[in-house]
Amino acid sequence: YTHLDMFAFSIMWLAVGIVLMLVISVIFTEPTVYKEGQIDALTGNVKYHLVVNPDSARTWKRVIK
Q1: How far from chain centre, in Å, is Cα 18?
Q2: How far is CA 21 from the centre of its chain?
Q3: Confidence (pTM)
Q4: What sections of the protein cross the membrane (predicted)?
Q5: Measured between alpha carbons, how far is 50 from 65 in angstroms, rounded to an integer?
Q6: Fewest CB atoms within 10 Å of the CB: 20, 25, 42, 55?
Q7: What φ, ψ does residue 39 adopt, rounded to 5°?
Q8: 25 near 40, Cβ under 8 Å?
Q9: pLDDT given at position 10
């Protein structure tokens, strides 16, 4: 490998590490929110419907059964 290859690999792994740290910190700082979301996703309790805002923009609104 050339020095450039090694540099690219190190940058890639650094980015992977940062993303993993962010994901893990979110899971541990908001455990209830994350777990509720996981349970809703697994049980299919989450539905979305399209809402038209007053400025005529369309957004998805979450509906929990």
Answers
A1: 14
A2: 13
A3: 0.40
A4: 6-28
A5: 16
A6: 55
A7: -65, -45
A8: no
A9: 94
